[in-house]
Amino acid sequence: MTEHNCKDGSHGNFRPARKIISLKARFLLIADQRMRSGTDFSGIVELGALLAASDQFLYIFCEDPAFLNTVREKAGEHPAFRIHLLIRENGSEEQYALWHFSGGRETRDPGTYLPGRDILETYRDVRLLDRFCDILEENTLKFIPLPVAGMLILRSIATVFPYDTYLGRHYLSQYIAARDALSEDDRSLLIDIKEKGLPRIDDAYSDAVRHFLKIERKLYTQFSH
């Protein structure tokens, strides 16, 4: 009788041949100047909830220390959420603080977080996401801020990658190709679709935008969390 050494689940208990990655990083919505000026706080919360690992927790990233006061003022209007804000310290270019808002209370982590060491600097250079799967595999960062245009695709890749690294890399290559095919107007439209609630399917969109949205719809439907 031939002994079976494969681990496909057909004989005995299924045991993966490698350890499944348990990702350390939190994925945060980048609330940049365009979003803060064109979208009210309720809209930012709705966008951030799309990245949340549950219906309660959401993470937002912001470089402008003044946004902390906005969150303080508005967080109480969203009692269903525990809002976590990673924001640059007032008067500092490199240190970021993590604030938590829940049940009408606010707390702050005692430490600070640094770009490069703790935070992927995607808010400065989106091309860092070309190494997204490598970064997930290295698994050293605490926070990965995501741009609104591509956040649903990237969040979906982060969901599937720990279980199937090959598939995750395949989807990342699709994302990069679709992103690089976009014009500046296309990118602006993709942001407006998220921030202004424009239709996700429209024959008036360019081929590049429709292709990007098709990838997004396919991945987020299957691997949203």
Question: What are the salient characteristics of this protein?
Answer:
225 residues, alpha/beta, six-stranded mixed beta sheet, 8 helices, 37% helix, globular, disordered N terminus
Order of helices and strands: EHHEHEEEHEHHHH
Distance between the first and last residues' Cα: 43 Å
Instruction: Count helical runs.
Output: 8
Order of strands across the main sheet: 5-4-3-2-1-6
Structural class: alpha/beta
Please outline the major beta sheet.
6 strands, mixed
Mean pLDDT: 91
Write down the oligomeric state. Answer: single chain
Give the C-alpha Rg: 19 Å
Number of strands: 6
List unreliable stretches of 5+ residues.
Answer: 1-10
Shape: globular
Give the helix level as a range of percent: 25-40%
* Strand fraction: 5-15%
If you had to describe this structure to a student in words, what would you say it looks like?
The protein is of the alpha/beta class and 225 residues long. The protein has helices spanning 33-38, 41-49, 67-74, 132-138, 151-160, 165-180, 184-195, 207-222; strands at 26-30, 57-62, 82-88, 96-102, 105-108, 143-146. Strands 5-4-3-2-1-6 form a six-stranded mixed sheet, covered by helices on one side. α5 (151-160) packs antiparallel against α6 (165-180) and α6 (165-180) runs antiparallel to α8 (207-222). The longest helix has 16 residues, at 165-180.
